[in-house]
Amino acid sequence: MAHFVIVGGGLAAGKAVERLRKEGFAGEVTVLAAEPHPPYQRPPLSKGYLEGKEGTDAVILHPSEWYEEGGVDLRTGVSAAALDPADHRVSLDDGTTLSYDALLLATGSSPRRLPLEGADLEGVRTLRTLDDSNALAEQLRGGGKRLVLIGSGWIGMEVAATARTLGNEVTVLERDPVPLAAAIGAEMGAVFRDLHLENGVDLRASVDVEGITGSGHVDGVRVGGEVVPADLVVIGVGAVPNTSLAEEAGIRVEGGILADAALRTDAPDVFAAGDVANAFHPVVQRHLRSEHWDNALKAGSVAARSMLGIAASHNSIPYFYTDQFDLGMELSGYAPLMRDAQLVTRGDVAGREFIAFWFDGVRVVGAMNVNVWDVQDQLKKLIRDATPVTAAALRDESVSLEHLAAS
After folding, report:
1. 3 state DSSP class of 216
2. Residues 6 or more apart whose Cβ sits within 8 Å of residue 309
3. What is the DSSP string of 338-400?
């Protein structure tokens, strides 16, 4: 009987297990989840779960009993220590060894660290895991804390919004002139900047953090010759893919574990999915690594099918969503193509109720709806079909999205 091993405890791992059983795989499945929890998804950790509006049922995909009932050997708190692709064996940190017929690396990523003085003080945190979110929630849910966030990426901005909603003082320190500009450009980043400023966040751009102060416990962050008081500091400056297991096994790594569109690595019977995978995308004809929820959601299923020898391709349009204060947003698009595209908007940008298109002169390569709902299907169709359009038609609200997508 075939034995499949899944290394990881995130969304990609959980979805791979689901797909294996849905496709009728009756062999052995072992899941190695390094954390003491069944596989779970991360988006609520900086939003609803952190705020206390959602429970663990919104985070954990399935309880442990689900794996037992499905004949899956779920091992929590256990990590893979070494991988031998030639011998089809994986060594675990508990001293045991498993043989496998196919193995999925879904090891995710870890928060990027900063070489700052005081970064190891008590009260300086990152947010990546369920336990991280629990520790932050314990501090923030009562309100009244002084939180300083270093970095204004998606995680930082979501934590800032949640913490402010909970009644905390929030300061965001950002090196770039506009938050989120690297992801969505300066003009759209300014929409989120203004949102936070209007909600009482002290957002300071174009600043360099010089160090974190405190004696044992953090009490401030030094920036521009000033110390910003802090009871709690969260560093959110991106993540680094967990590739060491693959690298030490001789699997090719370039900005992530390299994989083809079927999520096969260059090692026999070894696949990669989720944050850690730098997979070839057939639409943009290049490798893409995405840390977003939708990537893990779709990739886990694709990897499972590939492990079973079923033709599969990870070719979906990258998708992301966020909720901050009273702003809800969905974004679909190909980041490499969006970078040089023209930004075209329709609707009320100042009122934060609009659609933004990234237009390459012929077609839409990315689209973001802000507080405009039930339009993602049309936007994705417009992108997927590479429908020829004009900037004027994209701006014109009298031209329906259905008409644009069908042009």
Report:
1. coil
2. none
3. HTTSEEEEEEETTTTEEEEEEE-SSSEEEEEEES--S-HHHHHHHHHTT----HHHHH-TTS-
Helix (H) or strand (E) holding 111: strand 109-111
Residues 176, 177, 181, 185: is their CA dihedral positive or negative? negative
Q: What is the pLDDT of residue 406?
A: 79
pLDDT of amino acid 367: 98
- Strand duo 270-272 + 102-105: pairing: parallel
Whole-model pTM: value is 0.96
Whole-number Cα distances in Å, 196 to 44, 190, 326:
19, 10, 10
Three-state DSSP class for 134?
helix
**Where would I find the H helices in 271-349?**
293-307, 335-338
Residue 126 has what pLDDT?
97
Non-local (6+) Cβ contacts of 174 within 8 A are: 151, 152, 203, 204, 205, 206, 207
Instruction: Report, in angstroms and rounded to the nearest whole number, the Rg of the chain calculated over CA atoms.
Output: 22
Distance CA 312, CA 345 (A): 35
Residue 170, φ and ψ in degrees, nearest 5: -130, 130
Q: How far apart are CA 58 and CA 78, in angstroms?
A: 23
Tell me the angle at which helices 11-22 and 293-307 cross, rounded to the nearest 10 degrees.
Answer: 40
- Provide the residue count of the chain: 407
Question: Of 357, 353, 361, 397, nearest to 380 (Cα)?
Answer: 357
List domains and CATH numbers for the chain.
Answer: 3-110+240-307 (3.50.50.60), 113-235 (3.50.50.60), 326-406 (3.30.390.30)
- State the residue for tokens 């009562």: 142
Contact 161, 172 (CB under 8 A): no
pLDDT (0 to 100) of residue 216? 95
Instruction: Specify the residue for token string 């997508």.
Output: 405
Element (H, E) at 98: strand 97-99
Which has the closest alpha carbon to 35: 79, 93, 94?
79
Residue 379 to residue 202: CA distance in whole angstroms: 34
Distance from C-alpha of 78 to C-alpha of 35, rounded to nearest angstrom: 7
Q: Which amino acid makes up residue 50?
A: L
Could you tell me the mean pLDDT of each successive run of 10 residues in the chain, 407 residues long? 96 98 97 98 97 97 97 98 98 97 98 94 97 98 98 96 98 97 96 98 97 97 96 96 98 98 98 98 94 94 98 96 98 95 98 98 97 97 94 96 85
Structure tokens at 86: 């030639």
Tokens matching residue 381: 């169709």
